[in-house]
Write a structure and sequence with these properties.
With 429 residues, this protein is of the alpha/beta class. It is 32% helix and 26% strand. It has two domains: 29-84 and 227-428, Aminopeptidase, CATH 3.40.630; 89-221, 3-Layer(bba) Sandwich (Glucose Oxidase, domain 1), CATH 3.50.30.30. The chain has helices at 2-37, 51-65, 125-130, 132-136, 157-172, 268-287, 307-314, 348-361, 378-382, 415-428, and strands at residues 76-85, 90-94, 97-99, 105-107, 114-123, 143-147, 180-185, 202-206, 216-221, 224-238, 242-252, 257-258, 264-265, 292-299, 323-329, 339-342, 367-369, 388-393. Helix 1 crosses helix 6. The longest helix has 36 residues, at 2-37. Mean pLDDT is 94; it is low at 1-21.
Length: 429
């Protein structure tokens, strides 16, 4: 009896060791993928220095290693999109103080390039709400207009709406006579990318980086508007035991790229982490044949407005009616507070199944439900009637669309359990 008990314990510990080793390998591979996608070679996976192309080629090589099949001669589905980029000089000096791009200031992603020294005409919220700004900018054709930082919560809803309308006009209005706009902020420095080019440059400056009043600025910002930038989705699949229906797993690999020659937005959590989950799924199912043929799609141009997934759903490589279920991974790098499931309220039975699996196996802290939201690539499929979830992790670091979303600080807090839950969920579909 003692011998049998010891034998059982030995087998149990051996199996536990194997499981732990597999989990360690998943996290190790995730960190490798994230570090690669956030490296200088990838240039933020945007539209400077072929960053998006470099990332796509890396993903295609990983698909090839795992033995994924192609729908055509290549893993790439190419398309074009307009995009504004900033590949050259990017410097700003305010009142004689040189500011750091990405940390102290941002240029609006729709801005044209500009270079020179300018006086600054400052405006207060009182000016804006009293229409005093109209007279102050009347003769500002050679100046920048500056707007003081303000606390939105101190204004009524109508006042906030009025302030937003005026600031939008100053930033983007063709009839604004000023050379450009400088807006002071106390909020987090969050950037984005744009498919349009507006008439005037606009700058966002961190209020605590400068001293008031602002009187002068010197700027050198080079832009390049790419009317037909060529980019690509990366697509492959693994044949399952059944090919009448498909499970589709997706994640976008693009990010914001660079703001000038030196400032990179790495995009570790958004969305190198989601891509790492996609590739970990790929490795798992390449070694463990899935019940259903499984498609892996890494989308380009999500940050431009879901452009890559929109193109795919308009030019599908297989019938969208074949999709049994789709799961989109975006922001997979934390997990301190569990996960959020977009469309959980729409596909309640599938959500409830995920919750049961999580409880049965004691994995994540919580699996939270959410309704529909068009906030990632799943949206384009959902609009076509494809059943789908978009899942993202909760808690942990707050880096998002900024220069601090880096591979070395991404915790991957509960990555192992998140991966384990997804595998169990997919195998139960």
């Amino acid at each position: 009896m003692i011998y049998k008990t010891l034998s059982f314990c030995f087998v149990f510990l051996l199996n536990l060791a194997v499981v732990c080793q597999c989990h360690a390998q998943e996290v190790e591979y995730a960190r490798e993928v994230i570090a690669t996608l956030c490296s200088e070679l990838m240039k933020g996976r945007g539209y400077v220095g072929n960053g998006d192309r470099n990332a796509a080629e890396y993903l295609a090589s990983e698909f090839e290693k795992a033995g994924l099949k192609k729908y055509a001669k290549t893993y790439f589905q190419t398309f074009t999109t307009p995009v504004n980029s900033f590949p050259g000089n990017m410097s700003l000096t305010v009142n004689g103080t040189m500011l750091k791009p990405g940390e102290d200031f941002l240029i609006d992603p729709s801005s044209p390039g500009i270079s020179g020294s300018f006086q600054v005409q400052m405006l207060t919220t009182e000016d804006l709400l009293s229409n005093g700004w109209l007279q102050k900018i009347k003769d500002a054709s050679s100046k920048f207009v500056g707007i003081d930082a303000f606390d939105k919560t101190k204004f009524s809803a109508d006042e906030q709406k009025r302030l937003n309308e005026i600031i939008s006009f100053l930033k983007y209005g063709k009839d604004n006579p000023a050379k450009g706009t400088l807006i002071l902020t106390t909020e987090k420095m969050t950037w984005s990318v744009a498919t349009e080019l507006f008439y005037k440059p606009a700058l966002i400056v961190r209020a605590k980086s400068i001293s008031l009043p602002i009187t002068t600025l010197e700027i050198s910002a080079e832009n390049k508007f790419l009317k037909d930038h060529k980019t690509q989705n990366v697509i492959g699949y693994i044949e399952g035991s059944r090919s009448d229906s498909l499970v589709v797993l997706t994640a976008h690999y693009d990010h914001l790229g660079m703001m000038g020659r030196e400032t990179i937005f790495p995009g570790a959590n958004d969305n190198a982490s989601g891509v790492s989950m996609l590739l970990n799924m790929m490795k798992y199912f390449s070694n463990t044949k899935p019940a259903y043929s499984t498609v892996f799609i890494a989308f380009a141009a999500e940050e431009l407005g879901l452009v890559g997934s929109s193109y795919f759903t308009s030019h599908p490589l297989f019938s969208l009616n074949q999709i049994k279920f789709l799961i989109n991974f975006d922001l997979a790098g934390t997990g301190d507070d569990g996960i959020q499931v977009v469309n959980g309220k729409i596909y309640q039975q599938k959500f409830d199944m995920m919750v049961r699996l999580n409880e049965q196996h004691g994995l994540l802290k919580q699996v939270k439900i959410r309704g529909e939201a068009c906030n990632s690539d799943h949206c384009m499929f959902y609009a076509k009637g494809v059943p789908c979830f978009y899942i993202y992790t909760l808690g942990g670091i707050q880096a998002y669309h900024d220069i601090n979303d880096r591979a070395e600080t991404l915790p991957l807090t509960d990555y192992r359990d998140y991966f384990a839950l997804l595998i169990k969920f997919i195998q139960t579909l």
